Amino acid sequence: MMNEEKLVQLQQFAKRVRNHIVPMASDGGCFLGASLSAVDLLTYLYVDHLNLHKGNLKDENRDYLFLSKGHDVPALYGIFAELGWIEADRLKNHLSTEDHIYWHPNRNIPGVEFHSGSLGQLPSVSIGVAMDIIIRGGENRVYCVMGDGELNEGSCWEAFLVANAYKLDNLTFIIDRNNFQANMATEDLIPLESLVEKFESFGMMTQRIDGHDFMALEKAFSNIKGQTGAQVIICDTVRGKGLPSIEARADRWFCNFSQPEIQELLVELNEGFGANLVAETLVVR
Amino acid sequence: MMTYEKLLEKTALEDDRFIVMTAENRALVRNLPTSLGNRFIDTGITEQTMLGAAAGLALRGRKPVVHALSAFLTMRAFEFTRTSVGIANLPVKLSSFIPGVLSDGNGPTHQAIEDISIMRGIPGMEVFAPADEEDLVEMLPQIWATENPSYVRINTRPAIMKHKPYVFGKAEHIFEGKDCTILTYGFMLEESVKAHQLLCDLGYQVGLVNLRNLKPFDGDLISKLATQTSCFITIEDHFLTGGLFSILAEYLVKNQILIPTHSIAFEDRWFKPGRLSEVLIHEGLDAKSLVEKIQKFIQK
User: Which of A241, B55, B127, B177 has minimal Cβ neighbours within 10 Å of its Cβ?
Assistant: First the structure.
């Protein structure tokens, strides 16, 4: 059971990560909403769960986390900055061709296991890594973080069939269930529910939790050990979590705000005052 | 005699980096589950997942040799090959079964006659087309030895000639000839060798090259032959666009080499499915038809 001190530590870490993310939504912008929904579950994994630290990033016995919903990479980079894997100042290089920090992950950044951005790409790559660990008799685990909209892609379901067939008990699929795909609520475009039943029918032990609740995350991730096949944790989240002025809004997916708006959003994030946003909403897809 | 399957088995038993994968296309690897155990992985009819998983295995240091029917290996899984294998430049080795006219009676769904074109478009991808099983077995150890991804048009037809030793990246220059030089690869060498003999019987001096590699391309040989032969004739069971004719044209233009060049290929259409011997005649790819076309090219 998580103690109060640990809980506060995780909450404060996640808030600092959000403070790294928000400024990236300017001067070219980023996928802000999808990044903010994934911050808490990624914070829990990197800070408290994965066997992964600055000293073992290339060790073959490390845990692997594959970010299949690659457009939330600002969350990953915010975490890496907080963990000291990259310099926090480097985030200011977002979209500069002098660095490698752009809208999707790439392996030039320490801690990124694989490039992504094409949805439905990494479930199969995760399967290959999980298979190899099993062949070699390793104890390490593989985690694949996916978006809910990403589940539209048929390659995800093909991969789930194979994960089940090969009883990959070291592989966990984590769904950031923020209820939106690019432009619309998932249930208004390609309905996904009922997700638990879908995953269970594919033979995977499935849990559904509040993806912003660190205690629930701890409990769910403690349950995945000792299973006989791949598992799924559906994390119910809020797109744009932490910024009420953009939370759960279909039109706030890709965001590119002015500097004054970014300052207002940071005040909103840290002090709770609502921001006055006039920037035109952008839809990229 | 060494076969594809025996060579793969030997290679994998000697080097545990090798993993044999198939998307339930076991024709070439039927006996390997027993000898390779958990290093034989059949992902079922899932070309996309197989290629993605191969990338994951390669990330962990493995060299997966992946098998599927050519059309599905190259096209259904294309983005997984391009994006997961290609961008990371991982040593995943694609073994492509029934490419070109070897899909004989299957029909257009199974006709991989754009495979060379699309696979060579992936940066770092190496592309090969052995002429028969002997050529294949001669080439594969060097193909599998590289740390780059590769695509091989698998051809297990019996050899019709004794091949020269393979030098990576180099073509097999079989005959010299001043009237014209035939450039071909893969299965079409069979009919080209027969056509060559018929043309010699008619008194022509015809050169013949088994390309072996489409990428890397043996440009040095082309530059040399351009000074010794009157024209090039490419023969391929591939669309006219993107295959050998295109590769040759790119090379000649880039190097400002001026020489008459003719092509025998599928021009913007699929071929009529049927028994292989009948397909060749119907499509004008049998030795007799090739001779007629080549004579016209020479007389131009």
Answer: B177
